Amino acid sequence: MKDGPLPKSVLARGVALLRVCGDAETTLSLAELALRTGLPKPTAHRLIGELVRLGLVERTPEGSYRIGLGLFVLGQSAPAVRELRDAALPYLGDLHEATHENVHLAVPDGTDTLFLEKVTGRRATPIVSRTGGRLPAHCTATGKVFLALDPCLPRRALPRLTPRTMVLPGQLARDLALTRARGYGVNLEEAEIGVSAVAAPIYAHGRDSRPIAAISVTGGTRRLDVDRIGARLCAVARALTRTLSA
Q1: So where are the chain's domains?
Q2: Which of 62, 193, 204, 243 is exposed most, by the fewest CB atoms within 10 A?
Q3: To which CATH superfamily is domain 78-245 assigned?
Q4: Could you tell me the fold of the domain covering 10-74?
């Protein structure tokens, strides 16, 4: 069920449908779209039909809906995202070759961390993240990097994804203080059981006070040497920051 007020404008309602399609791991029926957006079913039907006509949403042979290729192409045209990804990809590839684990490029998105890129392989630990997906910032290594350098910590109730997710404000504040002190964030099975991650901040300019992105390595908890990978990530993040500042 949708939280918050019903979008009023036609544009806002269309965007709500696109967001729901984008966040879903599978295709959605018309009834599910209406339920998740809070839109009346006839309104959802009319708007989703227009989005299909525009190529932003696809209708499957079974009659359900998913994000279309047109929206993907449109998203790839955003200059800031394209420039960041292009600059980061060589570094992400090197990290994957060195660790044989999942490597992410992420940016802050409200109270979430949004994964712009993911480099993985057959030897990497299977994990739930995907390019274009998001997770709550407080339970991810990349998200903790953003929260640690943000003066406005979350004030709402924090969702618990695993028994190890930090949901108490004091506990999270102490962990973020540690993130600032060591220069990288750590997630110890806080988003997935058996999976941990380390992340370091990326800046547009060396003297910026808040990062524009973060890079991370995610893998099986038993396989991940947090201190060693943290040091490597910090070095790579500094090199990428210099590239972006050039």
Answers
A1: 10-74, 78-245
A2: 62
A3: GAF domain (3.30.450.40)
A4: Arc Repressor Mutant, subunit A (1.10.10)
This prediction has a pTM of: 0.81
Report the 3 state secondary structure along the chain. CCCCCCCCCHHHHHHHHHHHHHHCCCCECHHHHHHHHCCCHHHHHHHHHHHHHCCCEEECCCCCEEECHHHHHHHHCCHHHHHHHHHHHHHHHHHHHHHCCEEEEEEEECCEEEEEEEECCCCCCCCCCCCCCEEEHHHCHHHHHHHHCCCCCCCCCCCCCCCCCCCCHHHHHHHHHHHHHHCCEEEEEEEECCEEEEEEEECCCCCCCCCCEEEEEEEECCCCCHHHHHHHHHHHHHHHHHHHHC
